[in-house]
Structure formats: C-alpha cells, structure tokens
Write a structure and sequence with these properties.
Blueprint (H helix, E strand, L loop, with lengths): L8 H14 L3 H14 L11 E4 L3 E6 L2 E6 L3 H10 L6 H16 L4 E5 L2 E5 L6 E5 H15 L1
Antiparallel strand pairs: 1-2, 2-3, 4-5, 5-6
Length: about 150
C-alpha cells in the first residue's frame, strides 16, 4: 500500500530545499513533521492500519494482509531490529547487518528483511509479507513496545 501526494511544483521544490538544507530526504522531512504532530498530541501515536494487541503469550501484530505474533520476551529484540534497520551502513557493514537483522528477527516470531528503502515483515508461518519504510518501521517498533506494557 502506498500513498501518493500531489503538490504544486513550488511546494515540492520547497520540500526538496528543506531536505537538502537539513541533510535529509524529503521522506525524512515529512516523517519529522508527522512525529512532531504525534508529540504535540494532534494525532495518535499508533499507526493507521496497524493493530497491535497484547496476547497471553506476546504481542499480536496485524497489518493489511499480514499477521504475526511476537513472544513478549522478544519484543525488545524486534523493536531494536525495526529501529536499527535504517542505520547508515558502510559497504563493509551491509552483509553483517543484513545477517544480524534477519537472524535476530527470526527469533522473534516475525522475520524482518532489509530492503533498499525500508524493511519487509515476513510471517514465518504463513509467508505473508508487509513492506515498511524505515521511519514507519521505527514507529511500529514503538507501537509494539506500548502494546507489550
């Protein structure tokens, strides 16, 4: 699922200028804006379309076309993997980080695969997949941790 914005050329260029001046991507600038609105209480912190609920054994994660469950003791590991996937990598670190992300996530009941611009959640039981941009993955990590409390 993706959402496309149609902006006047002037606004698009302004977003690009903000991103360039801050050393970020346009997606990062928009993510920062959304997070500021969450912090200010304008919108809820939970992601639309993401349902996370505590279960007797862990946390159930339900997204469109995807469902999985994380054992409660593995919630911190999955949250760390989702947040760390966006970490800037040197070429020498890419393969090491790739193995770490997939190996740690496989222990949590939900496999995480790194993609160019995000991660993909994979249910080891059903094979269902759900792609997430890095910033959204980090927000989902927060949501999963809140559900575990």
């Amino acid at each position: 699922m993706s959402f496309n914005l149609k902006l006047p050329d002037e606004r698009g260029k302004q977003l690009q200028l903000i991103a360039e001046n801050e050393g970020k991507t346009v997606v990062d600038v928009i993510t920062d804006f959304i997070r500021s609105k969450v912090a200010a209480g304008v919108i809820p912190a939970d992601l639309p379309f993401a349902d996370t609920k505590k279960t007797p054994d862990g946390v159930a994660v339900v997204l469109p076309g995807f469902s999985g469950e994380v054992p409660v003791q593995e919630v911190p590991a999955l949250a760390d993997v989702l947040r760390d996937a966006a970490e800037k990598l040197t070429p020498a670190d890419i393969e090491r980080k790739h193995r770490l992300i997939e190996g740690m996530a496989a222990l949590t009941g939900i496999k995480v695969k790194r993609m160019a611009q995000g991660v993909k959640l994979i249910s080891p039981i059903t094979g269902q997949e759900y792609p997430l941009a890095f910033g959204v993955a980090a927000d989902l990590a927060d949501q999963i941790e809140r559900a575990a409390e």
